[in-house]
Amino acid sequence: MSNATDTINTPTSIGSPVNRFYRTVWRWHFYAGLFVTPFMLVLATTGIIYLFKPQLDVLMYRNLMVVQPTAAIASYTQQVDAVETAYPNATIAKVVPNIAPDRSTEIQITTADERNVMVFINPYTAQVLGDRDEDNNLQAIARKIHGELLIGRWGDYLVELAACWALVLLITGLYLWWPRQRFRIGGTLIPRFWSKNKRVFWRDLHAVPGFYGVVLIGFLILTGLPWSGFWGDSFARVWSQFPAQMWDDVPQSTVLTGTLNQHGDHVVPWAVEKLPMPQSVASGHNHASGGAAVGSEATSPQTPVDLDSVITLARAQGAPPGFSVSFPEGETGVYTVSAFPNDPAQEVTMHIDQYSGNVLADVRWQDYGLVPRAVEMGVAIHMGKYFGLANQLLMLFACLVVILLSVSGLVMWWQRRPAGRLGTPAMPTHVQGWKIPMAIVAVLGVAFPLVGFSLVTVLLLDYLIISRVPALQRLLN
Description:
By secondary structure, the protein is α+β, with helices and mostly antiparallel strands. The chain is built from 14 helices and 10 strands. The strands form 2 sheets. The chain has an 8-stranded antiparallel beta sheet with strand order 4-3-2-1-7-8-9-10. Strands 5-6 form a two-stranded antiparallel sheet. A hairpin with a 7-residue loop joins strand 7 and strand 8 (334-339). The chain is elongated and about 75 Å long.
């Protein structure tokens, strides 16, 4: 949102302390933009694709997802049997019962060569309609690029670092946008498209939309960070906790519920990722957590615990349409019923003993703390799920603003860039008022360790090396 080319808002006294601080902030803004812009373009583009996943899925896979309702629905056990017959060497991972009468059942499997495949079943005939590779389709690839740039953990860290630096870009950009002298609507609140000066045109196209989009873009960054690998994991360890008494008398494993999110879409909410997975007891002895009664929440001891009984139990306990059932892994594994719906207040995570059918853990919205609730609400809005199409369009606007800022910023840089040089804004010969930028660095460093470390690194390189080596100054400035 820089207005460095604007002769109205830029401080005019070259040697003034205000001007020196302004040029320092401009230099920070330049460095942040140089690093962040490629990532922001990628995140905004892939975000738009995944934002409209519900519509794209039906459009692209209508023959697999939409069925003609007929008679009674076949049992889900029969539907799973049909999948096992069609894919004899695969392992059933989870089942998503049909969310509407005209929708198919979705059964995710892991093949012998460790591919994640979603199989679509006609719930009325138990006929296999086809499958979709969950690792190699448009939405899945967009999600993986958005989260980890297709390079795994280090890509996750790079995305997190770029997102944190984008906060620096927003803060410095807002400072550069702020009028320094006489306030004028043109160039501050309205782009001066009528200007014949190309630099003013592109500056306004960068700064004014940036001002209007700063809150939404900041919201997208902050609500996306809880899913990041470094900061998000640390944040979850502190805030995603539940009272220990909820798990009294329930055998626990060292496996966390968040492991269910390692393949495909998010299966369980962020709020329960650090929740220990309970264990099933082969003897069938009843176990109940402090918040989950056995009685009506368990299948009858004479009734074998199968997929149909688990789904019946889930529906009886108010799991909303779209919930999934993850299958037990090993002799002590549990069935996990999880709902990750558009409204976070309807989220459900239930772990069910595979032998007795007892509910070993049942975590709902009312069990979340204040911070997990805020995170889940933020994630729902971030993904465009919370208030329907209007939510998607609002987030689309934010993504388009990010693209506009990135492109206009690149054009502004290219226009002012000296031939053969990077065009970094010159460092002031003397900077007064250093306490404010240092306070910003300290706050960001504490809140976001990766950005703090990188900021200190850049500052040290800038002030101790670049500013003292004439050859580097000529190349960069």
